[in-house]
Design a protein that fits this description.
Immunoglobulin-like; 4 helices; alpha+beta; 29% helix
């Protein structure tokens, strides 16, 4: 059998078709390469533009002008002065701060027309304050004005303090009027929790009042202790002076370990050099029966008692403190010849 050979015409047609397909493939590849290259260039250009875009500048904060606050003048501090020893004198003292110093203006009623009465700011509290620390001008005609070189803040940091008016220079131990210096209460509604929250106001106010009362009681007890130590030290000095005129004389007290400021002790035998009636514990009345509740042992009498048979140069006076002092914890102490303090009491 004979195999039929393709014709020359058919072969030519097939070759032409192959060439066309090949050309088409090559052209498509070139077009695709050109497109992807252009797309990559466009992407790179866009990235560069994005990187060079300027970011918005942050706005500066608006600074408001500072409006200065107005400093209000300090509220005057008024101290009520009550009469002492049935003097009939009473009134007030007004404290104002002026240019960093405290002005004290005293006004009292009931003073004798001819009186010239010394006045001081004392450490401690009425009715038996301790040592004077700021002298005031004498009260004459019921009035006195003094500028003391201390700021109000510095003065109040020294509380407890009291203003005391004396009868005269010769009767300095006789008090005519006295008043405790206390800080003024802030009545601002913004700072007063009782006003800010009325539902709990009574509870908070009550707690604050109890705390204030406790602080005041402790301050007064501290002041009384300071007065005890100072007064007995001075009393010891007076005994030494008396001993120089009446060496080793028996102290004029009778009875078993008597209270100093009782009728059992007399100043006559010492030539009135010692005021026995004024030398008494600040917490004790003339009967000497008031007790120091905080003293040790509990209920110990605060009254100054002197050992029977004591002499000018050999004596022992016992007393009690209510709080911790430079002598030690609250309790019973004594002072002996030479002004030496020690704990306990031998009688």
């Amino acid at each position: 059998m004979m195999i039929e050979q393709p014709s020359q015409k058919g072969l030519t047609t097939n070759i032409a078709i192959i060439i066309v397909v090949a050309v088409a493939l090559v052209a498509g590849g070139i077009s695709y390469y050109a497109y992807t290259g252009q797309k990559q260039a466009q992407d790179e250009e866009q990235s560069a533009l994005t990187a060079n875009i300027a970011r918005p500048t942050p706005k500066k904060p608006t600074i408001l002008p500072v409006v200065p606050t107005t400093t209000l003048p300090a509220t005057p501090l008024v101290v009520a002065l009550s009469d002492q020893n049935s003097s009939g004198e009473s009134g007030s003292a007004t404290l104002n701060e002026i240019n960093g110093q405290v002005q004290v203006v005293v006004n009292v009623n009931g003073e004798s027309a001819t009186a010239n009465q010394p006045a001081h700011i004392h450490v401690g509290a009425c009715p038996n304050p301790g040592a004077p620390i700021y002298p005031l001008n004498p009260v004459v005609g019921g009035n006195s004005t003094t500028i003391i070189a201390v700021s109000m803040d510095a003065l109040l940091k020294q509380l407890p303090l009291a203003i005391n008016i004396h009868k005269s220079d010769t009767e300095i131990k006789t008090y005519m009027a006295c008043g405790d210096i206390v800080k003024s209460k802030d009545t601002s509604a913004e700072e007063d929790p009782a006003v800010a929250n009325p539902s709990t106001g009574n509870i908070i106010t009550g707690a604050l009042e109890n705390l204030a009362d406790k602080s005041l009681d402790e301050a007064r007890a501290k002041a009384r202790d300071a007065k005890r130590i100072s007064e007995l030290k001075q009393f010891s000095v007076e005994l030494s002076i008396a001993n120089s005129t009446k060496p080793n004389a028996t102290i004029p007290c009778v009875g078993m370990n008597p209270i100093i400021n009782s009728i059992n002790c007399s100043a006559i035998a010492l030539g009135n050099t010692i005021d026995w009636n004024q030398t008494k514990d600040p917490a004790v009345g003339n009967d000497g029966l008031v007790k120091c509740g905080n003293a040790t042992p509990t209920g110990t009498s605060c009254a100054y008692t002197i050992k029977s048979g004591s002499t000018m140069n050999k004596y022992e006076i016992c007393f009690a403190t209510e709080q911790t002092t430079n002598l030690g914890v609250a309790g019973v102490y004594n002072i002996k010849s030479g002004g030496i303090f020690s704990s306990g009491c031998s009688f």
